[in-house]
Amino acid sequence: MVKRLGMCAAAVLSTACATAAEFGDNVHLRGDFRNARIAFEREGRGTVAFLGGSITEMNGYRPLVCEILQRRFPKTVFKFIDAGISSTCSTTGAFRLGTDVLGQGPVDLLFVEFAVNDDQDAHHTRDACIRGMEGIIRHARQAYPDMDIVMTFFLNEGMLSTLQKGETPLTVAAHTAVAEAYAVPTIHLAKEVATRITTGTLTWQQYGGVHPSLQGNTLCARMIDELFNRAWSASLPKEVAKTPRPVPLTPLDPLNYAAGRFIDPATAKVKQGWTLGVPDWQSIPGSKRARFTALPMLCAETPGAELTLTFEGRAVGAYVVAGPDAGIVEASIDGGPFRQVELYHAYSKGLHYPRTVMFTVDAAEGAHTLTLRVSGETRAGGHAARIIQFVAN
User: Fold this and answer.
1) DSSP label at 17?
2) Does the CA dihedral 378-349-294-62 come out positive or negative?
3) Domain residues of the chain, as ranges?
4) Which of 62, 76, 84, 225 is the most buried (most CB within 10 A)?
5) Residue 13 neighbours by CB distance under 10 Å
6) Are 331 and 370 in contact, with CB atoms under 8 Å apart?
């Protein structure tokens, strides 16, 4: 696989001259995009992170882009961070950014993709798409102002149909609004693929579907390489230095998750029915993903199980795995009315599915207390709640 990826990266570079006209506005450079190049070229080191869902986690476009960067800067020592987690959306991404990416030290270049999972997994509204993606971009830029960022739009069959009608998928439109506000370059792979399929130069099967084939991922990598061509073709002037990237004073959404973070579930105060530990997965029906099976979780399976959690900010929720036995929880903020939150997801029928559920997003700024209990109602096969982390903003 490594040899094959290397051959593909070489092919990407060999076709660079033809790509400018080929991709047009589907490769959209915003800002000068010099900071990462300065780190790679002058400082001889670079940290590159990839944040997204399964499209990022798989050996797809990510290793191809790593190969391209290594070929462009052969003397540079790179650190590559794979922060892709299958099924996760921009909401989860915003809350795990600090742990999975920013907590590993300064990042020079961040690639982010969530257009597909915000659509087919989370079924986000436009507001939710912006809240998550703006939270990621704003948090990243506030933590490391010199960071360059690239946003890539992949697609599924529903998004393909929308594009072929001449319309823009909701998630792409929302993420583009964030990219425009924060001067983030975009790779509109989705539109490029839709155009090629419509004109008969590519089929959905050749592209590979939701999880692209080598051909589909190579197309994406070529578009990213064209972005590098447009930004880095001229020699780097000696007097040019890194420039902090501006963060708009007024966000698109004041409820964005720029302060998103995890809260250790061990800090919750259990009233009754919750236990912290690694679930006995062998006795629990449903398939499990290996990355979660060794993690301690705060678990409850009986109605009436109750806990409290103190948090600072405006939003609180939980990053959970929800399987066939997932139940309903009821959440109250500061003694207010309880509100039901469904843990079971459409994909939970046969899988303990990772997702983030929010209990409130618009509390007043300050300290609050969450009371969480397991409901006596269920629409699935049980009442289970398994919390990996609490989240707050």
Assistant:
1) G
2) negative
3) 2-232, 261-392
4) 62
5) 15
6) yes
Angle between helices 189-199 and 214-232 (to 10 degrees): 120
Backbone angles phi, psi at 300, to 5 degrees: -150, 145
**pTM for the model:** 0.95
Counting beta carbons within 10 angstroms of the beta carbon of residue 218, is it exposed (0 to 12), middle (13 to 18) or buried (19 or more)? buried
Instruction: Give dist(CA 190, CA 45) in Å, integer.
Output: 32
Cα(212)–Cα(206) distance, integer angstroms: 9
> Residue type at 89?
C
DSSP bridge partners of 51? 83, 112
2-232 CATH fold: Rossmann fold (3.40.50)
DSSP H helices, 73-144, are 90-100, 115-120, 126-143
Residue type at 206 in one-letter notation = Q
Which tokens in the block code for residue 393?
Answer: 């903003």
- Nearest-angstrom CA–CA distance, 156 and 151: 17
Residue count of the chain, please give it: 393
**Contact between residue 205 and residue 172 where contact means Cβ atoms under 8 Å apart:** no
Q: What is the dihedral of CA 17, 20, 22, 24, to 10 degrees?
A: 180
Residue 88 is inside which H or E element, if any? none
What are the CA-CA distances from residue 277 to residues 142, 166, 287, 297, 306 (Å)? 34, 50, 19, 5, 17
**Residue with structure tokens 């398939």?**
287
In which residue are the tokens 């390489």 written?
Answer: 225
Find where tokens 């933590």 sit. Answer: 143
Does the domain at 261-392 match CATH 2.60.120.260? Answer given as yes
Task: Kindly state the tokens that stand for 94.
Answer: 């915003």
Asked whether the beta carbons of 81 and 54 are under 8 A apart, the reply is: no
pLDDT reading at 8 higher than 70 = no
Model pLDDT for residues 44-83, shown as the tens digit of each residue: 999 999 999 999 999 999 999 999 999 999 999 999 999 9
Q: What is the pLDDT of residues 347-388, one digit of tens each?
A: 999 999 999 999 999 999 999 999 999 999 999 989 999 999
Tokens (6 digits) for 69? 């960067």
Nearest to 324, CA basis, from 345, 299, 298: 345
Contact indicator for 119, 388 with CB cutoff of 8 Å: no
